[in-house]
Amino acid sequence: MDTMRRAETAAGAEAEAGAPSLQRSGQWFLPPLPARLRARRSLRRRWPPYLLLLPSVVAIGLLLLWPTIQIGVYSFQNYGIQQIVGNEPTQWTGLSNFTSVLSDSEFWLSLRITVVFSAVVVPLTLLTGTLVGLLLHRLGRRMAALVSTAALLAWATPAVSASVIFVWLFDPDGGVADWLLGRLPSWLGGGAARWSGFSWTNAPLPAYTLLTLLVVWQAFPFIAVSVLAGLKMIPEELHDAARVDGAGWWRSFWKVTYPLLKPIFLVLLLLSIIWDFGVFTQAYLVTGELGNRNEYNLGIYAYDRAFTTPPAYGLASALALILTVVLLIITVGYVRASVRQGAIQ
Amino acid sequence: MSNGPARHTLRRYRKAVLNVTGVLVALVTLFPIFWMVSTAFKPPAEIYSLTPHPLPAHPTLSNFREVLDGSVIGMPYWVFLRNSLFVTLTSVVASSVIALLAAVAVARFRFRFRATYLIMLLIVQMLPQQALVIALFLDFRRVNLLDSLLGLILVYTAFALPVTIWMLRNFVAVVPRELEEAAAIDGAGPVRAFLRVLLPLVAPGLVATSVFAFIFAWNEFVFALTFLGTDQGKYTLPIYVKYFFGRGSNDWGAIMATSVLFTVPVMIFFLLGQRRLRSGLIAGAVKA
Question: Which domain holds residue B32?
Fold first, then answer.
């Protein structure tokens, strides 16, 4: 608990450390120094930041920015198996990759799956996470430790393990989910016959129901912990005042808690959209490792075009570019929200 | 004060409801993890029984033996553990060093393009891996970095940087500058002042970023899946789990055993570092 609090205050103290009055001058507050020393300091100051940044700029530039540019270039070329082995030169083909993508019904299906999946999972994750965050805030210390440890373990479970576990939970032979659903009264669950041997991975709707549960299970802890951190920053007096004014729990949430946490919610919303739109590992494993073409989301569709024979890197790049551009549009909102909260100090 | 006892009962009732909800949330959240561990210790007859039992009636280690001795893939588990540890630890050290340098630059200096750099970090961190993997695969194929652990180390180091720099700069920013100035006045050079003054104070931040980088590299799937195509001796643990999962044999005991052996180390690591990581991530993603 102690380290947690210390780290929190450390993070919170940043605003004070970078107080605008000291910063706008472009110089840190320094005790007065002899003129010669000051001159040497200003010379020394011009270069170090760029040298310190150099390794990170090189690494990020080569392994993140350069590939992004290449994706953009390849998407206008006929990059395929003949080009990669060197039999034929790579040619510019204009928009042909994009026109063939847009006329492909599989693209529209994968886009629809991606959008609908995000539209369901994002609100569900935010709702679950917020409720658990509120619960954590009101529980006693020991109960809160129990719940947050459970949530952290779910958070810590790697995507590969989580996917494998959930496929097993929903397995038609011996899985717990089918057994449980079969035990529900027949007016509610449809009876044991309906669920015995029900396969969750062979059709899009059941597969994405499974994925929804899986992704919510993995993602709600981050939301809960973030909401909890926000709740701890709200002074207790505000809620007390609301209670004195006769506000119930519901009113006090919407009139006090929500407005104060709104910036946090905005960032969490944008992050969730970005993550759920691009969910890959879980979808790849649950839908049978490129096994069911009618269960592809956008990312898997692009991956499939690039890495199943015959590879069509140009076409896959066009898809990857579309995915990247969509995510960048949401990222712009995320960056603006972060800047408005004073992230770039 | 006539309603005192009633209010007291109401409060106790509320508290009981909250506690019961808490226990239920914890149980539901823990169930998948519990089920993984429990299945890993069950003999086949219990795994496929028509009525599942929570705990193994006759616990067995045979699933783990199958996974550890490598009779299925032809190589023992330790090969993959070694690959994973090598890739993860190397990229953690590399990304921590690079991120610390960048964090000092961003937190300690004002310079042109500083805001550009910070915004670039925010954007780059959102680039979808399944898009970049296509271009990186073609690049790495050209420079012979496929089927190589070095290739993975390069990717993991670079991909951890945006978040680690973003987190670390908060930790650097709160170290009082006066301490370094005092060291400078006492005659310490910038390197010495850095090592003696800044580094010890930023250590908690380095723990947080290391935990993040560790988890990222240990868990990473897309690049390992794509780059380690043909050489099974180079597999990292997530690919080993996928190998068991993808055999189509539905050997759930063995699949859950690999999954346990892959998950438990990162969980322990996560629980040890979670307090710092949590505040660091929140400071990075939400507050800051």
Answer: 4-60
* Tokens matching residue A310: 């015959």
Residue B65 forms part of a structural domain: no
Residue A272 is assigned to a structural domain of this protein:
yes
Chain A residues within 8 A of B112 when measuring between CB atoms: none
Distance from C-alpha of A60 to C-alpha of B132, rounded to nearest angstrom: 12
| Residue B146, in any domain of the structure | yes
pTM of the entire predicted model: 0.86
What is the structure's pLDDT at A60? Answer: 97
Do B10 and B96 lie in a common domain? no
Q: What percent of chain A has pLDDT over 90?
A: 48
Longest CA–CA span in chain A (Å) reads 88
- Regarding whether B81 and B56 lie in a shared domain, the answer is no
Window 302-321 of A: residues touching B by CB (8 A cutoff) are 302-303, 306-307, 313, 316-317, 320-321
pLDDT tens digits for range A51-93: 999 999 999 999 999 999 999 999 999 888 888 888 888 889 8
Burial class (CB in 10 A: 0-12, 13-18, 19+), A86: exposed
**Is B33 in contact with A62 (Cβ distance < 8 A)?**
no
Between A13, A26, A169, which is nearest B35 by CB? Answer: A169
**Residue among B104, B127, B256 whose CB faces A324 most closely:** B127
B19 shares its domain with B95: no
The string of pLDDT tens digits covering residues B196-246 is 888 888 888 898 889 889 989 999 999 999 999 878 899 999 999 999 888
Structural domain boundaries enclosing A155: 104-308
**How many distinct structural domains can be found in chain A?**
1
Helix axes A105-138, A204-233, angle to 10 degrees: 40
